[in-house]
Amino acid sequence: MGISIAVHSSKGGSGKTSFSINLAFAYTSAGKSVCLLDADFKAPSLFNYMFPDSDRWLNDVLDGKCDIMDAIVEVADDTVAPGKLYVGYCNPDIDAVREMSGKDRKWQSKALQNIMGVKKKLFSSGIDVLIIDTGPGVDFTSVNAIAAADYVIMVTKPARSHQKYMEQIIDGIYIPLGKDYGVIMNKCHDNKPIAIPGLVDPDIPVVASIPCLCDIATRSDSEVLTVADPEHPFSKAVFTVVRTIEDCLSNK
């Protein structure tokens, strides 16, 4: 059986999607077969990266219009070796975004069942790691992804609004759902995990702290740091997360 990871954030702008992509490549570099899904239905962005196009969407899967195997495409290049990488997108069209925003709770309940079905189908097809790049905050689709995950990564940054909302999400969603989770403190102005002393509960597991580095912003969207520069501080943080998840889930 594979493992499923939800990459979440309290607010937008934390670097969540970049982290998701690098996490996927970190697993493929270890020889894993990985599926990366964009479940940020209100602000999809995974399609902007240099991945293959697709004519089916995760929206269609959750609507019951197609199978997940029809909505994912393989990234077939040397960067994913020795593993394999498949990606699935949510529809970036503005009408599709509006439609998803208007879904009611009955649809969301059915969508959770479909997500669990997606997870089962992908694992039975040979996927080792499912990574779900969720939307930020407490949207129903994000909570569904979290509910379906074995481990949750909260990517946040050292801003008061991000960190206070992060604590509310942990207390209000992760803990009631019984989720194993870890926090990535991204874009720190120094190399300390907590940039606002006393603000974050010391019991919250901060897995990695990533300094704010200008060279990340200037790199090409097609460059994945865990592949291009495994010794980069950002890459090292991603590999730390991989080891943390493995240790956590192996002890269960």
Automatic annotation (TrEMBL):
One matching Pfam family: AAA_31
Transmembrane annotation, as ranges: none
Cited InterPro entries: AAA_dom, DNA_Partitioning_ATPase, P-loop_NTPase
Residue stretches making up the AAA domain: 5-170
Origin: domain of life: Archaea
Protein name as catalogued: Septum site-determining protein MinD
Native source species: Methanococcoides vulcani
